[in-house]
From TrEMBL:
GO terms for molecular function: peroxidase activity. It comes from Streptomyces fragilis. It comes from the Bacteria. This is Vanadium-dependent haloperoxidase. Residues 1-34 form the signal peptide. Its EC number is 1.11.1.-. It is an enzyme of class 1 (oxidoreductase). Keywords: Oxidoreductase, Peroxidase, Signal. The lineage of its organism: Bacteria, Bacillati, Actinomycetota, Actinomycetes, Kitasatosporales.
Length: 431
């Protein structure tokens, strides 16, 4: 489990009515400095990180699927929390909402109530645990009008997101029925499962105007120089028994399988002492752009439907290039997911992540510590470019994507982030 760094604040100190200035005069200098820096309990940014962790854990249990299937649920939770917080704090433009909360309401109580309301609506089987988590959060916030009004406003924020996302295409019947001619995707070993969650490519985006808004041009044609070059690279470096792939490259392939992005964002927010509004904005901006990146990637998968490297290598005698030959015993390092090669979902969401953080921070120094929940290791990235590079390389070294699918996907993710941050989560005038 990722170690999350939270703000240094004790609940008893936060609740004292005497005020931090008076308290500091009676405390040792180091303790007084910590007390002065600590936010009041009613505005503690750690509540946002804690509830986004609760959301991620709840979704992981409730949603039977892969990370792409779970990403938009995290985006729903993040936007509900963001609207609850910014509706009270101001500072940033709410997400598709014009409501303002009571000026003196607790934004921390609103954040917790919004996440709780949204999660219990979609996942009622987890209600008991979520109820306990809400009680634990509210126990740290002084009782009274500010808490009550915060809770009420948070629930309104969650209800608004639920209303916004009604009939958005979740689990709609979308099929991929193109004939399996050379170059076209078909189920891959070992499970030979059908196209996984094709509906993601037709889902209504959270930010973009349509799934196809940033659809790229087609992948390299069969037999083209780029196609042959891409396939040869995967064949050599992505094979399960590759002698060319280094141990470090193998580690990179295994690392970028399933990442704890909520934990990474919480750690970043705590170390940089972001306030509650900026913390909520970080989660909402990253999760919504990543969700739309998945939708855009699946749109391309449905549109172009090109086969995976394992199929292309096994059936290289069908690609129209006399210089390529099939290797029917070739296996990738990692199991190939059940959907087409182009675009790579991981590379597209990586571009959305780094692009969003770069825009929010005003620098490419993202300072991000990320834990791989499946790989079991943790990496720190000072800058965006190395993160993008590793995310692109990882799927090639894993043997499951061509480099073009990764590079183009990453570029699309950045374009989504740039477009979205020009229009959403912007500072309000005067802030």
């Amino acid at each position: 489990m990722t170690k999350r760094v939270s703000s240094v604040v004790s609940a008893p100190v936060a609740r004292l009515a005497v005020g931090l200035a008076v308290l500091a005069s009676a405390l040792p200098p180091a303790v007084a400095a910590a007390a002065e820096a600590a936010p009041p309990a009613g505005r503690d940014p750690a509540v946002v990180s804690d509830w986004m962790r609760t959301a991620a854990d709840t979704i992981a249990v409730e949603v039977d699927g892969t990370p792409p299937d779970r990403a938009f649920w995290e985006a729903y939770a993040a936007t509900a929390v963001y609207n609850a917080v910014t509706g009270i704090e101001g500072r940033f433009a709410p997400y598709r909402w014009r409501e303002r909360g009571p000026r003196h309401a607790s934004s921390a109580a609103a954040a917790a109530a919004a996440a709780h309301r949204l999660l219990t609506h979609y996942f009622p089987h987890s209600a008991a645990g979520l109820d306990t988590a809400l009680k634990d959060t509210l126990a740290k916030i002084p009782d009274g009008r500010a808490e009550r009004e915060g809770v009420a406003f948070g629930r309104r924020a969650a209800d608004h997101v639920v209303e916004l996302r009604a009939n958005d295409g979740r689990n709609a019947p979308v099929s991929f029925d193109r004939p399996p001619v050379p170059g076209v995707w078909r189920p891959t070993p070992p499970a030979f499962a059908p196209f996984s969650n094709a509906w993601l490519g037709r889902m209504r985006p959270l930010l973009l105007r349509s799934p196809a808004m940033f659809r790229p041009g087609p992948p390299p044609a069969l037999g083209s120089a780029r196609y042959v070059r891409d396939l040869d690279e995967v064949r050599v470096f992505g094979a399960r028994n590759s002698t060319r792939r280094t141990p470090a490259q193998t580690d990179t392939a295994r690392f970028f399988t399933e990442l704890d992005i909520p934990g990474a964002l919480g750690d970043h927010a705590a170390r940089h002492r972001l306030d509650i509004a900026s913390t909520a904005r970080l989660y909402a901006a990253v999760h919504t752009t990543q969700a739309d990146a998945i939708i855009a990637a699946w749109d391309a998968k449905l549109r172009y439907g090109n086969w995976r490297p394992i199929t292309a290598i096994h059936r290289a005698d069908e690609d129209g290039d006399p210089t390529t030959s099939p290797d029917r015993g070739w296996e990738p390092l990692l199991t190939t997911p059940a959907h087409p090669d182009y675009l790579s979902g991981h590379a597209t969401t990586a571009g959305a992540l780094t692009g969003t953080m770069t825009r929010l921070l005003g620098t490419d120094r993202i300072d991000l510590t990320v834990h791989s929940t499946r790989g079991g290791t943790t990496r720190h990235y000072d800058y965006a470019k190395p993160y993008d590079r590793d995310a692109i390389d990882a799927r090639v070294f894993a043997g499951i994507h061509t480099r073009t699918a990764d590079v183009v996907g990453n570029r699309v993710g950045h374009r989504i982030a740039d477009w979205a941050l020009d229009r959403y989560f912007r500072p309000l005038r005067g802030h």
